[in-house]
Design goal:
- The structure is a single chain.
- This protein is α+β, with helices and mostly antiparallel strands.
- It contains 1 helix and 10 strands, in the order H-E-E-E-E-E-E-E-E-E-E.
- It has a 5-stranded antiparallel sheet, with no helix packed on it. A 5-stranded antiparallel sheet has the order 2-3-10-9-8, with no helix packed on it.
- The protein is globular and about 35 Å long.
């Protein structure tokens, strides 16, 4: 007969505790976004950031800072992960600091960009 020490069958209480810990970690990961003058909608690998125009708008997403530098007409300049890039609506994604950045829309009130982790980076 073999006696195993240190292994216990998982009880419903232990399973529930593990599940709650996993859920709390996931919520903390997604809640890791913060912003000033902007709204964010994030998943695990991408975020949509809507910047308010006329204010110092920035957001911390996916472990980096995204900041609206300026907007004129249909062209905007943003800074992502410390690198500046100019974007135009409909333009192919620009690679910035290991992220793919696109301009979704620009109005008199707001600028909306999408920042996604680069699959190749």
């Amino acid at each position: 007969m073999t006696t195993r020490t240190g292994t216990f069958p998982r009880t419903p209480t232990r399973r529930a505790a593990g599940l709650l810990a996993s859920l709390a970690f996931g919520a903390a990961l997604l809640a890791g976004c913060s912003s000033e003058g902007a709204r964010t909608d994030c998943g695990l690998d991408a975020c949509t950031v809507t910047f308010d125009r006329g204010v110092d708008a920035q957001a911390n997403i996916l472990g980096v800072k995204a900041k609206l530098i300026g907007a004129e007409g249909d062209q905007v300049t943003v800074e992502v992960a410390g690198e500046r890039v100019s974007l135009t609506t409909g333009q192919q994604a620009a690679e910035v600091g290991g992220f793919a950045v696109t301009l979704d829309s620009v109005t008199d009130q707001e600028v909306k960009i999408r920042v996604a982790r680069n699959a190749n980076g």
